[in-house]
Amino acid sequence: MKNEELQHIIDGLGENLEFTEEGSEYLTLTVPKEQLHAVCRKLKSDPKLKFDFAFCITGMDWGKELGVIYHLESTELKHAIVVKVKTEDRENPTLDSVCDIWRTAEFHEMEVYDFFGITFNNHPNLKRLFLTPDWDGWPLRKDYEDETNMIIK
To answer: Phi, psi (5° rounding) for residue 12?
Structure first.
């Protein structure tokens, strides 16, 4: 399915959805954080879309905003999309978990929490994954300063 057709179907799944192609093969959808879970559930369950595989979930620090980028694919229908969600709350960044929709998201969300400090509502076991529990800060944020000089810059 072409990106224009995908956009036409997805446009009715929520309000204030923004679409871009950003010079890549993927259609990019930016979703308001309040609609993330509902839109993602529809992306998976709609028979015309069937986005059944979350193959990459990445945390991002855009400077003013923190967020997550989801790369989704339909293994049956052979199309893909990028979904972005952002929050301006850098002190207490919180998004809804999608691990009940895509099981692969459970560890990806733990990694995003570990490195960016984004908390995921309804995550079954949100904790540090790579760093020690007593690690101070979120090392992949642009404003992170390593007091111990343990991270190579």
So the answer is: -85, 5
